[in-house]
């Protein structure tokens, strides 16, 4: 059900995406009308949150059922589902195929009445609210002139980033995301001497109702999009292996790989930004994972020119790793909910060259007989299927491999790949079934289809 406007993009980006989704191969397969319909669905579903929340459970620390029961208990204590007396029962369900995933339904869109007192937040903050977050003070851009802690307010997301910080009202392009209670006075939120921290508005009646996981069982549950969890299972790490996560921040996949290995072996995590590496180390410590070694390093330069040296840190000799995950930097156009993007077409198209540099390093660092998994959270051909076609032409040593689990769709037409090759790829395409999934369908059925946009390819090096 459409409750929000479609994603706001620059006109040149919209036209570029239309040319992608209406390419010659797609038009020959499904026709103009169906291709255009799918493209319009994509623009609409990207602005809406998935109909469930996905949680990865730390099954290396406790059995899944124990974590499920504890999570249900904690969420019932919160009693933050809806503000009306009729609260729905909280039910956390295990995914039937993915053994460390728990699913929770999202209730929405809900009939929420807008109030006269309005708080305006940034687009990123508004998207977080649609997935169950409260409003943290740094995300607040405007509030009523005399707002005090305890006031009931309606929260709106500024789609185009045009609201001036500290404004008392805003009449621009904004979207209502729900009602909440102010936790701070306006003067504290916009104090110039000491920047405000913590929750600024606690959401009590959101448009989409899902639990807040702030501080909930931090060592046992990790909020992660379902396709991101699938990536770790597709990589299929084994105890004792040496594995490289080339673009590791924020570290969810790194920690998942280490957990799947039983914390036996070594997972090398690289990222260019030091505070992101610090965060990975903190997460590893919180999850009691000793096998993760994180380094601040540019992965395009991770291959050493000295092939015989013993390297404890980057750069590494060629053919060092049993498995490599390249979760590549990308345009991020598959993320949901995303109500607005201000990126230019030049920015969108800047990623493929970087991805190829990283891919070249990944192939060099991978042992013969090793596995390389390439993934993105975007929907473009240039960053997904076209990169696979380029890789297969550039590196004869690589062959595509089946993926397990394979719960997404096959690859998208348009890059000249064969039907057999497309079947080996995994593209999560929420636009295909977005408005056709019955709310009464089993949660796992909805979860596998109502995802973020995501892409996975698995290669073997021979």
Brief synopsis:
The chain is 30% helix and 21% strand. The chain has 462 residues and is an alpha/beta fold.
What does this structure look like?
- The structure is a single chain.
- α2 (24-30) crosses α3 and α7 packs across α8.
- With 462 residues, the protein is of the alpha/beta class.
- β2 (93-94) and β3 (101-105) form a beta hairpin.
- The strands form three sheets. Strands 11, 12, 13, 14, 15, 16, 17 and 18 form an eight-stranded mixed beta sheet that branches. Strands 5-9-8-7-4-6 form a six-stranded mixed beta sheet, covered by helices on one side. The protein has a four-stranded antiparallel beta sheet with strand order 2-3-1-10.
- It is 30% helix and 21% strand.
- Mean pLDDT is 93; it is low at 81-86.
- It has helices spanning 11-21, 24-30, 32-45, 64-78, 123-130, 186-189, 226-235, 252-260, 274-286, 345-348, 351-365, 385-394, 419-424, 430-433, 443-449; strands at residues 52-57, 93-94, 101-105, 118-122, 135-136, 140-142, 152-158, 174-182, 199-206, 221-223, 242-245, 266-271, 292-296, 321-327, 366-376, 398-400, 426-428, 454-461.
């Amino acid at each position: 059900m459409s409750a929000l406007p479609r994603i706001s993009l620059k006109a040149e980006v919209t036209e570029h995406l239309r040319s992608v989704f209406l390419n010659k191969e797609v038009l020959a397969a499904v026709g103009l009308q169906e291709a255009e319909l799918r493209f319009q669905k994509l623009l609409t579903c990207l602005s809406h949150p998935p109909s469930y929340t996905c949680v990865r459970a730390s099954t290396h620390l406790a059995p899944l059922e124990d974590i499920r029961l504890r999570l249900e208990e904690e969420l019932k204590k919160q009693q933050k589902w809806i503000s009306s007396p009729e609260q729905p029962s909280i039910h956390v369900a295990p995914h039937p195929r993915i053994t460390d995933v728990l699913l929770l339904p999202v209730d929405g869109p809900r009939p929420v009445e807008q109030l006269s007192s309005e708080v305006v937040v940034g687009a990123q903050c508004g998207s977080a609210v649609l997935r169950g977050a409260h409003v943290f003070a740094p995300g607040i851009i405007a509030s009523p002139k005399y707002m005090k802690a305890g006031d009931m307010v309606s929260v709106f997301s500024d789609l185009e980033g045009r609201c001036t910080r500290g404004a008392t009202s805003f009449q621009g392009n904004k979207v209502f995301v729900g009602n909440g209670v102010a936790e701070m006075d306006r003067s504290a939120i916009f104090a110039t001497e000491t920047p405000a921290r913590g929750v600024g508005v606690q959401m009590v009646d959101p448009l989409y109702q899902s639990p807040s996981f702030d501080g909930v069982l931090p060592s046992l549950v990790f909020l992660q999009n379902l396709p991101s969890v699938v990536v770790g299972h597709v990589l299929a790490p084994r105890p004792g292996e040496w594995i490289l996560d080339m673009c590791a921040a924020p570290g969810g996949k790194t920690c998942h790989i280490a957990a799947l290995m039983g914390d036996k072996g070594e997972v090398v995590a690289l990222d260019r930004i030091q505070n992101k590496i610090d965060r990975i180390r903190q997460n590893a410590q919180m999850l009691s994972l000793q096998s993760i070694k994180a380094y601040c390093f540019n992965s395009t330069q991770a291959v050493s020119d000295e092939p015989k040296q013993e390297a404890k840190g980057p750069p590494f000799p060629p053919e060092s790793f049993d498995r490599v995950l390249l979760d590549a930097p990308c345009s991020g156009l598959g993320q949901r909910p995303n109500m607005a993007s201000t990126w230019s077409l030049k920015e969108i198209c800047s990623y493929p060259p970087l991805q190829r540099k990283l891919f070249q390093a990944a192939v060099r660092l991978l042992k013969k007989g090793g596995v390389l998994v390439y993934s993105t959270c975007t929907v473009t051909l240039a960053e997904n299927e076209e990169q696979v076609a380029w890789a297969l032409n550039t590196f004869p040593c690589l062959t595509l491999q089946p993926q397990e689990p394979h719960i997404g769709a096959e690859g998208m037409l348009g890059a000249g790949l064969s039907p057999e090759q497309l079947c080996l790829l995994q593209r999560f395409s929420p636009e295909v079934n977005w408005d056709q999934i019955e709310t009464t369908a089993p949660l796992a059925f909805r979860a596998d289809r109502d995802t973020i946009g995501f892409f996975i390819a698995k290669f073997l090096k021979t």
